[in-house]
Each structure stands twice: as structure tokens, then as C-alpha cells.
Amino acid sequence: VSFYPDSIETETQGESVSQLIITDFKVSGANRHFKKAIYETDSVKLEKGDNNFKVTFACLDFVNAQKIKYRYRLRGESDEFTETDFRNRTVNFANLSPGKYKLEIEATNVNGEWDSKTELFIEIPPFYYQTWLFRALLVFFVAGTIAYFVFTHNRQLRLKARQQQDELKLESLRGQMNPHFIFNSLNSINYFISQ
To answer: Nearest Cα to 116, choosing from 133, 104, 130?
Structure first.
């Protein structure tokens, strides 16, 4: 491919909006390929456990590339934009929780106005143990187990109290029978002595 540099029109450079595209997408350091090229897709669904990724982006204004500034944010993780320049066009996100995120990237034109924008929706599906249903079932199971142990412990305490109460009744009965037995024995002895 060849061209004549003096034939490039410089009057329309400041008027047109340069396209901002995502040029590379890596998950855990490895390239990830999707049905479409990453610059043509608007949403990406990762696999379970893919909680870190790296995105590279560029604005297609090669003449004024050094004057372009960028800013980005990952909705769902942070609402604040992070600004960078043309040298740092790579963003790393690590230790993300499963969920849906929206990556917004913006670029300035030559005059410093934010006029180019691109968005990428990213979904990280959870493992079964990271779902709300599993957590609710786990809480229910733990609460049920605790309730079972509390109920069993209270039942054992009631049973032990009943046994102690029965023993006290038996002691009381024995206490009543013992003087009665002694009284009967003394009466019998008295009877034999009298005879």
C-alpha cells in the first residue's frame, strides 16, 4: 500500500469524529475468541471463574494519536472514570465478582472534547455456590441444623429435669416409707416385748 503524504486532506481532520474501537480482549492472560471480532461485538459472556480480563482500545485517528486522551469505567465495579493518555491504552480488571458489567470507554478529539465512545457489556456467570439460591439454601440448612440442635438440647434438658423430678419424688416416697417402716418395726418389737 502506498500513498502520497501531500495529498492527504488536512482541513477535515478536526471536523470528523474518529472511531473508538476495542482492539484486544484477553481473559487470564490468554486471547479469547468470540463469534464476532471484539471490535464488532457489543456484549461478551465469559465462562464461570473468569474473573479477570484485559482490554486494549484505540481511537482510529492516526494523525493526531498523541493528542488523544482516553477515559474508562466499569459500571457495576466503579462509577468514576479513570483517565489515561495515548501511551496507556490497556486496562486490567481483576478479582471481579460474578455479575453483569458495562465497560464504557471514551476518547477526545484534537480539541480535547470527549466525542468518541464505545461500550462493551460483559457478563460473568457464577458457579452454583455463588448463586443467591444456593446461599439462601445454605442459610436455611444452617438455621435448620442449629434449630435441630437447640430443639434436641432443650428436649434432653426437659428429659433430664423430668428424671430428676422423678428421683426426687422417689426420694420423698422413700423418706416417707422409712419412718413408717421404723415405726412398724418398733411397734413389732414393742409387741414382742409386751408378750
So the answer is: 104
pTM, two decimal places: 0.64
Which among 101, 86, 17 has a CA at the least distance from the CA of 56? 86
* Residue 56 to residue 84: CA distance in whole angstroms: 12
Nine-digit cell string for 94 = 481483576
One-letter amino acid identity for 94? A
Contact 80, 98 (CB under 8 A): no
What is the secondary structure of 81-147 as a DSSP string? -EEEETT--EEEE-SPPSEEEEEEEEEE-TTS-EEEEEEEEEEEPPPGGGSHHHHHHHHHHHHHHHH
The three three-digit cell numbers of residue 107, written as one number: 476518547
pLDDT tens digits for 34-74?
Answer: 888 888 888 899 988 888 899 999 988 878 888 899 999 99
Alpha-carbon span 125 to 81, nearest angstrom: 25
